[in-house]
Amino acid sequence: MRPQRQQYLEALGIDVWVxxxxxxxxxxxxxxxxxAEVGPSTPSPAWLALREEVLRCTKxxxxxxxxxGVFGVGPQRADWLVVGEAPGAEEDRRGxxxxxxxxxxxxxxxxxxxxDRRSNxxxxxxxxxxxxxxxxxxxxxVRACLPYLHRQVELLQPKIMLAVGRIAxxxxxxTDAPLGRLRxxxxxxxxxxxxxxxxxxxxxxxxxxxxxxxxxxxFARSLYQQLAQDGxxxxxxA
Length: 238
Ligand code: SF4
Known about the structure:
Elements: H1 3-12, H2 45-56, E1 80-84, H3 89-94, H4 100-112, E2 121-125, H5 139-156, E3 160-164, H6 166-173, H7 179-182, E4 187-189, E5 192-197, H8 200-205, H9 210-230
Parallel strand pairs: 1-2, 1-3, 3-5
Antiparallel strand pairs: 4-5
Helix pairs in contact: 1-4, 2-5
């Protein structure tokens, strides 16, 4: 195991057991991409227009109580799209999704599978404005805001989506099934394969579930690698 991944797994709270015996010589393996490295990209005019629309949006009452809309973060040409529920207090203040303690855990989770919001994963929420007091979004608010995520997906064209948390999973999949039943399978958001896992804020409250989240991440990573291989490419975007 690479030391860096070991470091991130330890940050995740996953015990890493290392044999004292000398490891066997590594067999040569085919190069399978973890994710296309896209780096900073210039947003398209359509993307900038959508962002502007979100930041000015008054389609639901949340616009009156937010500090600012939170559009998302990451390169516009990332293969991976991670979707959470809604901005919290810190996200509302800073205008970026998944910051603070939960954001740091999400970053460690993503880094353990080779993803970084600065280079190869886009992160957004179902709701772009913070519900007061961090309450759950109402169905009306989700209905009002979800078209923005649909348009983000159209413009990003991710190869895989990861829904983090019950609210995000249920909103994206239009179901009321519990999160435990939605894990470990491949869903679709439109034509995009989607995998479900726990929200990092929940994992901070329930660290015993981190092992399951790590299983979900490995499941998503192997699905992405399978998609990249089936596509006959190297995971790089045209
Ligand atoms: S939550 Fe969505 S629909 Fe409601 S005001 Fe914010 S951007 Fe508009």
